[in-house]
């Protein structure tokens, strides 16, 4: 650049401003958008990729660690009940059964309670009462599982052993579900603990799904002379898919629960339909035996159970999230 040009740029502030604007315009063209937006968008994209990468890394690690068990037992690992560390023979059917059985019983107990609370909060409770009760219900999700376990050991198990199970055995002993000795520790105790733990999840999601239904539908029903109960049935009919998704999310939480279940289920590797008998779950066998795994095949079998639990949880949560998203999107579109 010549001396004359330098002097012109120094003496002409307007030219300097124009050159600066041109440089900024070129920078925006380089990023194809505002530089701040470019940085923010790519930072969040990177963080989302990190979370997704961690999930795939966990799956890859479990697959690698469980390969000896997969090669040794194949599909028989899922269909046999023998679990013998002495002879290095392992099968997971007992633990899969215990996991699904306790989770289903917990759902049967929790869904009516959760729906009742959700209906009250969504359709009946006044505004000044809805928020405090919602906070109290959601606080149940913040309680550590070890606290639930201690509550189960010192309060629930004695109550079941001395009162509930003897009564159920006397009145309904002919039914296989209520046969056996009243241990207190067992499937029933684990299911009750799980039902309390998943109640806030099902309640909060069901309430949100019910609230997503447009008020115009309620107003139209009232205008036609419908009662409160009839309007509630209309809301429940429109929310049934979302409530199903909430139940599946709750089951996903129940399937993966470890400490509270381990403390009250009795930890006996046996398949029994009786709610009084002790049982085992995939999470509880990992918690109990991981530190005792003395052989590579033993450790690999425990990791394969963890992989199976991971797959079941991912499938349940994916289905549930899709159902809830589909329902809420449907009614948001209608409202718009």
Summarize the main sheet: 2 strands, antiparallel
CATH topology value of the largest domain? MetI-like fold
End-to-end Cα distance, whole Å, is: 60 Å
SS strand fraction = under 5%
The CATH superfamily label of the largest domain reads MetI-like
Per DSSP, the total helix count is 13
CATH class of the largest domain: Mainly Alpha
Low-confidence parts, pLDDT < 50 over ≥5 residues?
A: 6-11
Mean pLDDT: 85
Helix share bin: over 70%
What can you see in these coordinates?
The chain is mainly α and 336 residues long. The protein folds into two domains: 3-67, no CATH class; 76-335, MetI-like (MetI-like fold, Orthogonal Bundle), CATH 1.10.3720. 78% of the residues lie in helices and 1% in strands. It has 13 helices and two strands; from the N terminus they run ααααββααααααααα. The protein has helices at residues 3-11, 13-31, 35-73, 76-79, 93-124, 127-139, 145-172, 187-211, 215-223, 228-256, 259-264, 282-289, 296-335; strands at 83-84, 89-90. Strands 1-2 form a two-stranded antiparallel ribbon. α7 (145-172) packs across α8 (187-211) and α9 packs antiparallel against α10 (228-256).
In short:
This protein is mainly α and 336 residues long. It is built from 13 helices and 2 strands, in the order ααααββααααααααα.
């Amino acid at each position: 650049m010549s001396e004359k040009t330098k002097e012109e740029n120094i003496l002409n502030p307007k030219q300097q401003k124009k050159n600066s604007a041109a440089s900024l315009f070129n920078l925006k063209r380089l990023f194809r958008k505002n530089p701040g937006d470019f940085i923010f968008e790519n930072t969040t994209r990177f963080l989302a990729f990190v979370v997704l990468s961690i999930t795939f890394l966990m799956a890859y690690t479990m697959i690698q660690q469980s390969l000896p068990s997969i090669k040794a037992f194949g599909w028989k690992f899922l269909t046999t009940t023998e679990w013998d560390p002495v002879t290095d023979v392992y099968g997971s059917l007992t633990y899969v059964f215990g996991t699904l059985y306790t989770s289903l019983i917990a759902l049967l107990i929790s869904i009516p309670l959760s729906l009742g609370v959700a209906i009250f909060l969504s359709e009946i409770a006044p505004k000044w009462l809805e928020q405090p009760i919602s906070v109290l219900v959601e606080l149940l999700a913040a309680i550590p599982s070890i606290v639930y376990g201690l509550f189960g050991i010192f309060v629930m198990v004695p109550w079941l052993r001395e009162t509930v199970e003897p009564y159920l055995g006397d009145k309904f002993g002919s039914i296989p579900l209520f046969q056996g000795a009243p241990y207190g520790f067992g499937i029933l105790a684990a299911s009750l603990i799980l039902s309390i733990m998943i109640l806030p999840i099902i309640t909060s999601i069901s309430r949100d799904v019910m609230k997503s239904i447009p008020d115009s539908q309620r107003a139209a029903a009232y205008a036609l002379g419908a009662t409160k109960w009839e309007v509630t049935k209309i809301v429940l009919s429109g929310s049934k898919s979302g409530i199903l998704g909430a139940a599946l999310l709750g089951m996903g939480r129940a399937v993966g629960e470890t400490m509270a279940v381990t403390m009250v289920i009795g930890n006996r590797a046996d398949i029994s339909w009786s709610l009084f008998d002790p049982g085992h779950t995939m999470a509880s066998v990992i918690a109990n035996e991981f530190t005792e795994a003395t052989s590579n095949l033993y450790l690999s079998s425990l990791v394969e159970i963890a992989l199976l639990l991971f797959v079941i949880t991912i499938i349940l949560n994916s289905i549930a999230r899709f159902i809830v998203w589909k329902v809420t999107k449907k009614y948001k579109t209608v409202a718009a």
